Sequence to fold (205 residues):
Amino acid sequence: MLTQLPNLLTLSRIVAIPVVVCLMLFVEAPTGNWLAFAVYCYASITDFFDGYLARAWKQQSSLGRFLDPIADKLLISALLLALVGVDRFDGVHILPAAVILCREILVSGLREFLATARVGLPVSTLAKWKTTVQILALGFLIVGPAGPQFGPLSTTQVGLYGLWIAALLTLVTGFDYLVAGLRHIRRADGAKPPATGGAQGAENS
Fold:
């Protein structure tokens, strides 16, 4: 199972995380920016191909379903922290980064709870768009001042605008997931049999 290509791609994405961060922190620009961007591109590409190959080759596994979301969240969280560490953004621009991190924690908690009830939380189309915008924004921010100008905007500014857009989409999709999760929670609580008097008394004693 561990030697299946989709799982190996997921594991390589996890290994790529400290590589990207170290390149950003310890290798001088512009070399470090572009090397970090290259490794980040590899990690982003594997995020697509591990799931695609697992479905195409019928190699979906519990290990893959466990590792894939963890790899995604580790990559996003580590990059946002590293970008703050290299002063790619600060001040008010930390707000969208905080929104994205909080949403990742919220969705992780919901998925963990719903998994115990054997209820899936499908990814919406809007969430896929959010992920796409987020991936592009982080790529622009990793390149940062080493990148070209896009008209009146620098590469960093393009990344910051993308980060704000991703944060707005994050709020919408996070709210949708929260509503769906709470709906399942209410159903689960409503399905529980009422406690008997003796059990209630024992619980309160």
User: Anything to note?
Assistant: The mean pLDDT is 84. DSSP finds seven helices and no strands in the chain.
